[in-house]
Amino acid sequence: MLPVMQREFVEKRGWLTDDEMVDVVAVVQSLPGTIAVNMAVLLGYRICGFPGAVVSAFASVVVPFAAIVFLAAGRSLLADSPTLDHIFLGVRAGVSALILLSAVKLSKSVLKKPLAWFLGAASFIACVIFEIDMTLVIMAGLAVGLALLAVNAFRRGVKQ
Amino acid sequence: MSLLQLYLLFAKVSTLTFGGGYAMIPLFQDEIVVKHAYMDAPEFANLVALAQVTPGPLGLNAATFVGMNQAGIPGALCATLGMVTPSFLFTVAAAIFLRRMAKSKNLGTVLSGIRPCVLGIIAAAVVFFAETSVLTCKLRELLHNPARGICWQGAVVFAVVLAVQLRWKRLNVVWLLAISAVLGWLLFLCSRNC
């Protein structure tokens, strides 16, 4: 998606400079929510202010929305059958493999320090073995992040 | 599930998601299957697979699909709106301070705590999806009784998709899932006739 956006917004239309595009990408990926929607809202805002953000948010969801409504309507036509069950079992196995691959890819940029290894392993075990509420797992991550921030600020204070 | 509940559920999940679609799926699963039991696990996993082959962001598609499944088009609308509201608010706030945010080291520090946890829950999602296909029981139970709990057809599909994706890195998700579907069907066909 990114190269397409870069060509469209920077090269073709000149709405953003290359530097701005780099900032946009960095910020969008650190915000919570759907990245594609964040991207649309941020670009819309940069280009045309608040109205631009509203229009972009709407535009970014309208096609997926229509596609899903259409698909869901069609799916109810499919009768339950053993054959369909087997097909979907295969698809679910395929999805498991895809998620595993995405986790491996993500781990390359995330697992750099021992603390990250520890947090990752602890979260995994908490979810799979102890079935802890995932909301709490994310909150715990946030708490650790904020604690790191406090430690950094404290160290800087000590140095000065 | 009422429309307001749908809206709030997806607004909550969207607020907790750092890192896009794959980070969102385990949170959905936790809320929809584990906590509230609106769907069973295979049903939810099927829905995610369909969301994956539909154009648009995975998380948003899955949310719209769940909304549609629970309460028709109004449900789909509320789910989508729930997903977009936090995105919109956070991003507009960020847009105002774009330069400062892009250069901020603090944001990176906080994320360095969150990201490994996100990775952990994505890895947990692999187990969850495998439990609806590759395994026939929970992973925890499998540890006690290793021989019983594996569905070999699912395991073969899993291995083939891994191998194909590692060999041809740029192969589209739609193709991979089409391969999984056909392979799943063929394997069951064979095992019945043998």
Description:
The complex is a heterodimer of chains A (160) and B (194). The radius of gyration of chain A is 22 Å and the shape is flat. The relative contact order of chain A is 0.04. Chain A folds into two domains: 1-77; 111-160, no CATH class. The longest helix of chain A is centred in the middle third of the chain and has 41 residues, at 35-75. Chain A is 84% helix and 0% strand. The mean pLDDT of chain A is 87. Chain A has 160 residues and is an all-alpha fold. Chain B folds into two domains: 3-132, no CATH class; 152-193. Helices cover 79% and strands 0% of the residues of chain B. In chain B, helix 1 crosses helix 4 (58-96) and helix 2 crosses helix 6. Chain B is globular, with a radius of gyration of 19 Å. The chains are: A mainly alpha (160), B mainly alpha (194). At the A-B interface, helix 2, helix 3, helix 4, helix 5 and helix 6 of A face helix 1, helix 2, helix 3, helix 4 and helix 5 of B.
Describe the structure using short key phrases.
heterodimer, A: 160 residues, mainly alpha, 2 domains, 84% helix, B: 194 residues, 9 helices, 79% helix, 0% strand
